[in-house]
Amino acid sequence: MKKEKIVFGLDIGTTKIVCLAGKLNEHGKLEVLGFGKSKSLGVRRGIVNNIMQTVESINFAVTMLENKFGLKVDSVSTGIAGQHIRSVQHSDYITRSNPQKYIDKIDIEKLHQQVKQLILLPGEEIIHVLAQEYKIDGQTEISQPEGMHGRRLEAVFHIVAGQTAAIKNITKCVVEANLKVTTLNLEPLASADAVLSSEEKEAGVVLVDIGGGTTDLAIFKDGIIKHTAVIPFGGNVITDDIKEGCSILHKDAELLKIRFGSALPSENKETEIVSIPGLRGREPKEISLKNLSKIIKARVEEIMDQVYRQITAYGFQEGKNKLIGGIVLTGGGSQLKHIKQLTEYITGMSTRIGYSNEHLSQATLEEDISNPSYATSVGLVLRGLKGNNLQDVKDISDEEIVYESTFFENWSKKFLQYLLNEK
């Protein structure tokens, strides 16, 4: 009997770390077998800034998954984001010695490997090599060249690159948690796999994943990735603005945002007030929900202005680039009340909130995994299960990791206890 393939996705985010386990059922839907999550204390704006804390956060999430659901995690498909990510367009070609022989996977792989030798800025390396269009002896608009004949095989590529140091820090954290990194995926591509339909990708759509530290963007058209970008702020800056604007603690600001926050001040009345418990010996603090909404709206507008700038840079108003599918918002920040309406007002594009329902089997867990905050985790598992071309993702070899396990000995117990107390 064939053993069922189980894939573990590890989303190392700015606010939380999630380890999700899943397999495909007989209908091709993702059956989630379990999950573990922890507060992320070692990541800022998508970049690891404290390896020890990140390792222990990963350990906590993995241990939770293993103990609660009886699964053993040994390797993970993980994601990467951060403001160091950039994308470039590049054309390249190979000349085949025998044009009478049909083009096969070896030819395509040779072209991809050649592109991976592209010289980037100092300290950068390639994460994804994504073919947008192939050409054979001048014939254009070929999506699948395999099986065709020709001498010159050419392609236009969308290349995603990142800082080598940031990539190594992510992989080092996973390895120090006694796990193997199978592939490294750009997070908005994983989120897109979870919440977008093939029809939307064909029609033209913008995926906007609003995380805690970054807002990730991916544009699809004709079923092909056309543009990616990472905006270096997300939901956490909204919380920081509330904290400063209302002169309250960070935890109270986050709670206010989640429970009472709105991106449209016009939806709140002047008389709507919420009371926040004061510090020891002090009176409770009263917060106007209209003022709260004004603070939130100002920051969301800034984020969406950056999103619209990226969409405009793509040239979506041109006929062939028209994005009929509009915008799909996902990630934890997409759950902010009235953010859909404000996005439509700023961009003039139809917008919906992206859930993973279409790709998930009927949930049996106590937590709603279709929630937008789990989109990246679901996408990472899907990318592992459906066997994306290895030409297109960064494969991590053991030689790339410097092992320093002794550096992390005697650290775990106190930090794990801290995380348990926090929960």
How would you describe what is shown here?
It is a single chain. By secondary structure, the chain is α+β, with helices and mostly antiparallel strands. It has a domain at about 85-165: Dna Ligase, domain 1 (2-Layer Sandwich), CATH 3.30.1490. Helices cover about 35% and strands about 30% of the residues. It has helices spanning about 50-70, 105-115, 165-175, 185-195, 200-205, 235-245, 250-260, 290-315, 340-345, 375-385, 410-420; strands spanning about 5-10, 15-25, 30-40, 45, 45-50, 75-80, 85-95, 125-135, 140, 150-165, 180-185, 205-210, 215-220, 225-230, 275, 285-290, 325-330, 350-355, 395. The strands form 5 sheets. It has a 6-stranded mixed beta sheet, sandwiched between helices. Strands 14-13-12-17-18 form a 5-stranded mixed beta sheet, with helices on both faces. A 4-stranded antiparallel beta sheet has the order 7-10-8-9. Strand 8 (about 125-135) and strand 9 form a beta hairpin. Helix 1 crosses helix 3 and helix 1 (about 50-70) crosses helix 11.
